[in-house]
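Give me the fold.
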Amino acid sequence: MERFVEDYQKRRLTERVDIMTAINILMSQGYDEDDLLGEITKVFYVDLDAYYEVIGHH
């Protein structure tokens, strides 16, 4: 079930450890790397530089 989240309710995801946690949770639910950014940004504002750093080391 998809939840509608207002932009103003989104939490900022800026710490690499938090981004890694979100990635690990999504991957454990069966999302692949190509889908991660789209899924994470539905729920969070993501620091893209940090995201790509994490993905690069993933």
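Strands lie at 11-13, 44-46.
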